[in-house]
Every structure is written in structure tokens, then in C-alpha cells.
Amino acid sequence: MPVNSSVIEGPWRRLGLGVLAAFLAVTGCTSSDGGTEPDPVDESPSSAAPSSEPTAPQPRSFSVVMSGDVLIHTGVWQSARDFAAARGERGMDFAPMFASMRPVYQGADLAICHLEVPLAEPDGPFLNYPIFSAPPQVIDGLEKAGFDACTTASNHSLDTGWEGLKRTLDTMDAKGMPHAGTARSRKDAQTPLILNVAGVRVALLSYTYGTNGIPIPSAQPWSVPLIDPADIKHDAHLARQDGADVVIVALHYGTEYTTAPDSYQREVVDKITKSPDIDLVYGHHAHVPQPLDVVNGTWVAYGLGNFVAQQETDIPNTYRGVTVRFTFVEQPNGRFEVDRAQFVPTMITPYEGAPIRVLDVESALHDPSTNPALRPSLRAALASVRHDVFSLGARKDGLTMMAPAG
Fold it and tell me: Nearest 5°: phi and psi at 119?
């Protein structure tokens, strides 16, 4: 079984396993036409005498998965109430909403979510668009789904002001959810989140294009990190100096509801992927899936769409998302490179007579118990996400769709 990282609190806000790191058996991937690659066959004679030669050490490796926006509209938190009520309980339970995706997230060494909105007090008040303030119980649901950390820099980071930003980070700390992006102190803003993942030190950096016109507090100018390619490259270099083996950058940017990356996205990505310190880039904010590509030798997922949301729009793609999985392997020179790139199409069921669920599309299509009424939407989501993800030709770079869970 893959081993997920565990939390160790400390002045540097780092994760550590604290236990022996396990080498992983990587999940089999599907080919571009959906077929599953066969496992290699061991043809060596079973009676062969043991070799006296020392066994060469296996290179270190780890897998990381990232999902789209966690955007908590009224239908989302009402669904959590419905799930709790179905068990005769009060309050909210987000875990059933994400249950379909648990095998994907718990099957990786590191799973990262993107909390786009600030958190309220447990009893509210809860606010919907355009000013969000979400139930903190969602963090419990994300943890049960298998997420190990969240990014927090977004255009909604200051929806409820400095106090809301601080409350969000305090709540995540209290619940044991590490975070990267927004900060409560200058020291925190200058200290990268570094995760110990299967013995590899992974830095996670998070930035946003802006805050919807809400001024960043003059007393806390470091509280929301804004996208500036020079700053991002500088921060990545500092993370390397601080001991990171791998640096991952999350960007909240782009044109909403547009599946193609815009010129700003391309410009930012082109500039930062020229840095030797950055190993992977991925994005949020468009609310629809965007393509994957290799830019300057670095894998980029331009936009992952929504993980969970209930947007009042007739754009079908806002109910579709993509979870990406990258497997890094240590090279002879000590650097880590992406050895395998995969994706999982996801779909949000609408809040219409039943609670919202986030579905692993292919797994749901392979499950005979799936409601027949959902199958047309699932097939449409599968075709749409595949088209968008491959639209820049990432298939030629080895991108594949993961095999259905189970």
C-alpha cells in the first residue's frame, strides 16, 4: 500500500513521515485509447541460485495528485447537511460527497486540494457568491477523502477580510491540514511549506492573480501572494536552498469558463518554467478543465476545473473537472523528473433532489450500480475532459488516463 505523509507541527510548518518511507508500486495507467498496460512478466527461472552480487539500490520515487477548485456554494453545504441527516445526525458531513475519489487520493503519496474560499465559524454565517464564507467542516471531509495539504491563494482569499484569512489558516492548523499560499505573518510568508513525502522533500508554492479588487491589508502586505514570475522563481530558489528536492507551483489565474489557456497564463508559465528550480506547475480559477502540456521541459496542467461547486451557470464544463497524477523518479544526477503523467476525469452531480457527489467518471461508468440516468452525463464528461486535456498534444508526451479504481 502507498504510504501517505503525516503531519509534524514545527516552526517551519513541514510534513514529516516519522516512519520508514515505503517504496511504491505505481498504479497501472491506461493507454491513450483507454486500454490498460499489462504488468511486466518475470521470466527468470524460479530455481536460479541467489546472486552474490550486491543489489543496486532502487531510485527514490513518489506520486502526487492534485484536484480542482473547492468552491463551496449553498448546494454544496446543504448536501453535507443532507448526508448527516440521512444518518439521523445534525451538522454536516462532506465525506460521502467525495467518497468516489478516495481511492485516487489515498492511493497517492501526496494529495493536494485547492481551498478557494475562506472558512467561517462552525455555526456560520455561511456565505455564497460573490462573497464566500464556507463551513469549516469541509476540511474534515477533504481529510477523509485522502487529501494531505491544500493551497489557499485565490481571488477569494480576502472575501471576509484579514480576520477571515487568519481564521481559515487557524482552522486548518487546528484540524491538522497543512497549507501553502496565504499567510498570517511575514515569517510564514517567507517560509515555504516543505513536505516529507516517501523520503523526498517537496516544496509547495501557491499564488493568485488578484483578490477581486479587495485591497490587500497595508499592515499585512505579505498575506496574499500575487503572481509575479520573478518572485515565484526567487521563492522556488529559496525553497531549493532550504532543502527541497522538488518544487511544485500552484497558480490561481486564467479566464473563467475558457478551456484554452489565455495569453497571460502562457506568458507566466513560459517564464517560470525556464527556472531550473521548478519541477511542476498547475492551475485553478477557470472553473473548467484546461489542457496539460510540457513547457520548457516542465509538465504544466493549466487548469483543473472544479473539484466541487454548484455554480449557477448553464456551462456543462463547470460540473466537470480533472485530477492529475504525476510520478517522480530520482535520476542518476540526483534530480527528480516526472516519469509518468496521468489524469482522472471527474464530474459533479447537480443538487437536484439528492445531495451532490463528486464522481470518478470512468469508475462510475464501470460500476453496474450507477444510476442509468447519470450515464449520458458521465459519457459526455469523459469525452469533454479527454478532449480538453489533450488539446495541446500532451498525448505525445506520454500523458494517459488512469485506469478505473478497483
Answer: -105, 145
Q: What are the beta bridge partners of residue 322?
A: 345
The model carries a pTM of 0.87
CA 292 to chain centre: 14
Q: Is 17's pLDDT higher than 70?
A: no
- Predicted local confidence at residue 58, as pLDDT: 87
Asked whether residue 4 is assigned to any structural domain, the reply reads no
Amino acid at 249: V
Provide the 10 A C-beta neighbour count for residue 99. 17
What's 162's domain CATH number?
Answer: 3.60.21.10
- Tens digit of each residue's pLDDT (9 = 90 or more) over 52-68: 566 777 899 999 999 99
Domain count, the chain: 1
Residue 204: all three cell numbers together:
509547495
pLDDT of residue 49: 52
The C-alpha cell 497595508 sits at: 218
Range of the domain at 90: 65-401
